C-alpha cells in the first residue's frame, strides 16, 4: 500500500505499481509455497492478474513435491460478473475455484463451467469462514489472500488470518477515490489487543511488515 494506505490509483487513472522488482519476486516465492491464491472479483476485473508461478526453479520444486506448477486459484463473486477469458481462468495449469451466492450458481456454471469449478458459497453472500472450511476439505492448508480491500476486510474482521504481510511504498496517492487497504469494520486488533509485529524487512525502496495474527503463525521459507 502507499504511505497513505491506498492499494492503487483512482479507478479513472492508470494502474499504479506500488512495489518493486525485488518484492514482486518475493511475492512469487510466497505464492509458490501456498496451496491456493485468492483474489476478489473486483481485482480480476481491474487488474486481470495471472496469479501464477513463473520462475522455472520454483515451478520444478512444486512439481517435485507432486504439486501443480502453480497453486490453485480462488475467487469470490456476487453475481458471476466476470470474463471467462480473464487471465485468472486461462493461465496456469492449476484448479480454478469460483465461490458465489446460491442465486448466482446457475449463471456462474453456464459462464465458467468449462474453465473453473463453481461452488455454492451461501444463500445471500459468500461466507468466508465456510469457504475457508470448504477449501480445507479440498486440501488447501495455506491460503494466500492477495486482495483486494474487500477480501482483506472480510478475512481480517472474521479473525481468519494467521499472518499479515504489508508492503509500504515510499509515496502518497492523495486521492480518496482510490481503494483503501481495508474498509470500515470491527477488527479483532485494536488499542486493547495489539497485533504482534513478527518481522520488518527493507526491500530496496519499500518496507515489508509481517504481523503474527494467531497462534498458527509460522514464518514461511521464501527461497
Overview of this structure, please?
There is one protein chain. This protein has one domain: Dihydrofolate Reductase, subunit A. 26% of the residues lie in helices and 21% in strands. The chain is built from seven helices and eight strands. The longest helix has 12 residues.
Let me know the number of strands.
Answer: 8
CATH homologous superfamily classification? Dihydrofolate Reductase, subunit A
What's the main sheet like?
Answer: 5 strands, parallel
- Give me the Rg, rounded: 17 Å
The strand order across the widest sheet is 4-3-2-1-5
Q: Which class in CATH terms?
A: Alpha Beta
Overall shape = globular
Helical/strand content category: alpha/beta
**Helix and strand succession?**
HEHHEHEHEHEHEEE
**What low-confidence regions span 5 or more consecutive residues with pLDDT below 50?**
none
What is this structure's SSE topology?
Layout: H1 21-32, E1 36-40, H2 41-47, H3 56-64, E2 72-77, H4 87-90, E3 96-100, H5 105-112, E4 117-120, H6 128-137, E5 143-147, H7 149-157, E6 163-168, E7 196-203, E8 206-212
Parallel strand pairs: 1-2, 1-5, 2-3, 3-4
Antiparallel strand pairs: 6-8, 7-8
Which descriptors apply to this entry?
223 residues, alpha/beta, Dihydrofolate Reductase, subunit A, 5-stranded parallel sheet, 3-stranded antiparallel sheet, globular
Amino acid at each position: 500500500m502507499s504511505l497513505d494506505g491506498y492499494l492503487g490509483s483512482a479507478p479513472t487513472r492508470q494502474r499504479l505499481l506500488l512495489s518493486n522488482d525485488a518484492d514482486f519476486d518475493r511475492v512469487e516465492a510466497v505464492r509458490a509455497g501456498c496451496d491456493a491464491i485468492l483474489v476478489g472479483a473486483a481485482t480480476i476485473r481491474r487488474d486481470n492478474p495471472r496469479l501464477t508461478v513463473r520462475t522455472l526453479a520454483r515451478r520444478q520444486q512444486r512439481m517435485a513435491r507432486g504439486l501443480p506448477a502453480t497453486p490453485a486459484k480462488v475467487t469470490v463473486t456476487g453475481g458471476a460478473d466476470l470474463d471467462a477469458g480473464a487471465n485468472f481462468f486461462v493461465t496456469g495449469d492449476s484448479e480454478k475455484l469460483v465461490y458465489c451466492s446460491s442465486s448466482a450458481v446457475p449463471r456462474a456454471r453456464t459462464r465458467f463451467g468449462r474453465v473453473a469449478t463453481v461452488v455454492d458459497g451461501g444463500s445471500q453472500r459468500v461466507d468466508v469462514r465456510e469457504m475457508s472450511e470448504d477449501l480445507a476439505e479440498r486440501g488447501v492448508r495455506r491460503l494466500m489472500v492477495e486482495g483486494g480491500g474487500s477480501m482483506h476486510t472480510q478475512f481480517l474482521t472474521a479473525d481468519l488470518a494467521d499472518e499479515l504481510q504489508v508492503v509500504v511504498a515510499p509515496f502518497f496517492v492523495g486521492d480518496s477515490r482510490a481503494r483503501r487497504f481495508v474498509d470500515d469494520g470491527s477488527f479483532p486488533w485494536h488499542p486493547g489487543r495489539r497485533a504482534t509485529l513478527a518481522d520488518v524487512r527493507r526491500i530496496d525502496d519499500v518496507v515489508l511488515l509481517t504481523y503474527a495474527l494467531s497462534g498458527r503463525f509460522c514464518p514461511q521459507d521464501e527461497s
